[in-house]
Amino acid sequence: MRVPKAIRHFVERPRLPRLDSYVPAASDPPIFWFNGEREDIVDEVADRLTEAHGVSVGSLELALNDAAMREMRRLERQHDEEARRDLGGWRALSRNIGKMSEREQKQELRRVTRRFAHDVAGNFDPRVYRMAIRAVPKLLATLMQPSQMPRALTSGEGVLGRLLKVEGHAEHLARLEKLGTVVYVPTHSSNLDSIVLGRALESVGLSPVVYGAGKNLFTNPIISFFMHNLGAYRVDRRIGAALYKDVLKTYSQVIIERGYHSLFFPGGTRSRSNIIESRLKLGLMGSAVSAFAANQARGVARKVFFVPTTINYALVLEAETLVEDWLKEEGQARYIIEDDEFSQLDRWVAFLRKVLGMQAACVVRFGAPVDPFGNPVDEEGCSVAPGGQTIDPASYVRWRGKATLDDERDAAYTQDLGEVLVRRYRHETVVMSTALVAHVLWRRIVSQSPGADLFSRLRMRGEVSMERSELEREVGELRDRLGRLQDAGKVRVNDWLADAEPSRIIDRALRVWNGYHTRMAAKDVGDQVIAEDPTLLLYYQNRLVPFATRVAGEHEVAAREIARMGVVR
Question: Most buried residue among 51, 136, 209, 398 by CB atoms closer than 10 A?
Fold first, then answer.
């Protein structure tokens, strides 16, 4: 059967031009070589999935029908330029699948898969990267200090250095980059996270990474330009086809197999509640475990290291939209928010100006790395068993002395790795002033409303207050209890908090909240502090939910109620 022209035109996309004016040096990070392999990576993804589905005619037909039907439904709802361009092609494909021979179905599956893979695959232009590390700090500094543009244009690095603090195991990671593939798996609070992490890596001399980003983020032309040229691959969460999800996982696996340092958010989307992630989406993380096993089976001894990373903000750009979405209980179903503060330039400017005067407004903490099976990794990249002895991670994927491929085995290992990361996230979370003060105020709201449900408490706007002296005492006590947890390795406290007077901690939190958010979180009226907006207080205090009972003191009843919220992501 001859493939209809409509289908051929629909599934075949022109190749992007090769960037041939830059020749990477041997000392450049691996990602500098990415564009030279991009087309081959796309081909390998298509070849692997075609081979996997080509085991039976039924698998081929099922995959094609699922992709066609789901895409038709999606595009019919959209009524946009994409629908006008592609809907006819999917309909033509759907009509002809049953008439195709096995060979033709294989060809169509490869074309569709390659089309998906091309849409996903990112780019990396070293010229844009070098421009970005020079220009972005100055641009952000100018936005924050428009009245001092000349100085901002020369001192952008200093401004960002004050705002962003990087902690943790950077020197260790620099060594591991030379010994294997590093995969960063951070918490996810804001659409700023990818930008912040990129800046954090560059500031401590670590290599740039390949990372996935929601396709909706590419609608902003400025952000899109940088993301498209700095290693981001596009994840279109509107596409529900199983074949598309297979493309994402296979793409991630192939690039990790080839040694490209990577980043993805195991929580999937931003935490709407601001509670530290406890339920992880294991698909992409599993692709990294499978990449290690596949390399071992091919005789490639390249190691893979996972880095649990926390991103900790005193002020979250999209806090109001995220918490409202969570409280509507629509967050998981809606999945994509296209109209939040991240898409509004005026909110960016207001946010950046608000955090300008803050020391360490954001703290990125790189935790101690682990291997694909959750074992700690020493300075030489060797895995360390619970008893302290060095072990070979390849032994986990061997059967009778030979490394093998086993999807069920790798899925079980990924599940175990996810549990390790959840524990590490808690240990590596850095408590900021806003979370500390919000927790004390929210705990008071809970204490004064016994038996009330969450939404009743959220309606108590301005009804609960604390004596300023009492708030200072409880803030100081909470900070000290968190300090003891830090000594036990269970959490981290922002360095500034450790020595600050409670009155200064409260003043900073109030200053951070008020004047940026459209609603006032709390208000200082002389000798009283009023819990003005329980919803915002709930959002910021949620960062302490996993620790609520451990730092409760005399507030055990309220702390137990707060801790029960931890079952919601």
Answer: 209
